[in-house]
């Protein structure tokens, strides 16, 4: 299968350098070779992988002769294929077609079909696959600044309250905010400026706030993880400007006892603390005890991220740190005996930093 992925990438590079006319002719000829059946889940995964290489780099003014049928096939393989590579390739290719569709009436028809299939998938035996596909479509609409981007993002936010796929929905925000060459200008896709900042404003959306404040435990965890993924993606200065509103989110993340949520939260806080923003001095009583607790977590990533946070806190104003100095130094003793070398190194660095607090060598 790896050979076909390589071939697909070669096709993609070649197609990218063709003119609009040449792309149109090449597609028309090559699509005749595909046996795209109506029941898309039965299309061989290899065909979908190669189709991605053919269609992903198309220019916006290249119109496919049978676009609706192709969309239908990709929807079926994205939701029902048992091959993970085929599922992802189909979802990405769907997102690319949505991003480049220039006729708004055609686009709305395609989106209506996609929404119907995703809604059915969520309610049947393909809920996780439906969330992945939804995430890519949301990303595509946001990147092209389409008026329906808000509507589709709200669909994903609603799934944060779903009883079984809430965490899948949270991971959808990671997909939306990740850099993606497939949906970039290199493949002639529209790219919205500051799209991550646009997503950031949704942290304070009433629907997300309701899930976070009054949802069940799973909904709160999912909402917290989604918010954390958003915060990771945007500039630190933007997060600091809203830090007082986000403290409650971070605290809930620590209380979730979910290693994935806690690791992501610590990654955010480590990045923010490394900037030396003075606002964090106000929250030392909130964070230091939680960082120390996380330093003995069963997850290596959590331990490492917690130790990074403790290290960066050790560089703040000493008058705020001295009450915690002895406790931190004592608690980090056990981390020096951690079975993982990388954890021991970070523990030694953090402990050395806190030894200097209040001494003449501190600054």
From TrEMBL:
It holds the Pfam family MMS19_C. The keyword Cytoplasm applies. InterPro entries: ARM-like, ARM-type_fold, MMS19, MMS19_C. SUPFAM superfamilies: ARM repeat. GO terms for biological process: DNA repair; iron-sulfur cluster assembly; protein maturation. It is found in: Cytoplasm, Cytoskeleton, Spindle; Nucleus. Key component of the cytosolic iron-sulfur protein assembly (CIA) complex, a multiprotein complex that mediates the incorporation of iron-sulfur cluster into apoproteins specifically involved in DNA metabolism and genomic integrity. In the CIA complex, MMS19 acts as an adapter between early-acting CIA components and a subset of cellular target iron-sulfur proteins. Component of the CIA complex. This is MMS19 nucleotide excision repair protein. The gene is Mms19.
């Amino acid at each position: 299968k790896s050979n076909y992925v390589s071939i697909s990438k070669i096709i993609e590079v070649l197609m990218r350098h063709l003119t609009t006319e040449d792309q149109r002719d090449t597609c028309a000829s090559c699509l005749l070779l595909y046996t795209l059946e109506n029941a898309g889940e039965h299309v061989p995964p290899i065909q979908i992988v190669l189709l991605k290489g053919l269609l992903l780099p198309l220019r916006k003014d290249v119109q496919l002769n049978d676009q609706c049928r192709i969309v239908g096939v990709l929807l079926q393989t994205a939701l029902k294929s048992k091959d993970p590579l085929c599922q992802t390739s189909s979802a990405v290719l769907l997102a690319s077609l949505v991003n480049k569709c220039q006729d708004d009436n055609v686009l709305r028809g395609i989106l209506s079909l996609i929404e119907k299939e995703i809604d059915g998938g969520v309610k049947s035996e393909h809920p996780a696959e439906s969330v992945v596909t939804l995430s890519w479509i949301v990303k595509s609409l946001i990147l092209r600044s389409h008026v329906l981007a808000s509507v589709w993002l709200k669909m994903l936010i609603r799934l944060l309250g779903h009883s079984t796929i809430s965490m899948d929905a949270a991971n959808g925000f990671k997909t939306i905010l990740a850099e993606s060459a497939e949906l970039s200008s290199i493949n002639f896709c529209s790219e919205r400026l500051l799209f991550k900042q646009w997503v950031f404003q949704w942290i304070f959306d009433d629907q997300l706030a309701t899930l976070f404040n009054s949802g069940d435990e799973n909904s709160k965890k999912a909402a917290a993880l989604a918010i954390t993924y958003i915060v990771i993606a945007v500039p630190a200065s933007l997060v600091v400007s809203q830090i007082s509103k986000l403290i409650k989110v971070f605290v809930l993340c620590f209380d979730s006892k979910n290693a994935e949520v806690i690791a992501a939260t610590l990654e955010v806080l480590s990045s923010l603390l490394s900037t030396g923003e003075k606002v964090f001095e106000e929250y030392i009583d909130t964070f230091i005890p939680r960082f120390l607790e996380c330093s003995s977590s069963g997850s290596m990533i959590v331990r490492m991220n917690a130790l990074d946070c403790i290290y960066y806190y050790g560089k703040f104003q000493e008058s705020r740190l001295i009450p915690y100095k002895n406790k931190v130094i004592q608690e980090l003793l056990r981390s020096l005996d951690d079975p993982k070398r990388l954890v021991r190194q970070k523990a030694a660095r953090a402990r050395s930093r806190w030894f200097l607090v209040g001494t003449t060598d501190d600054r």
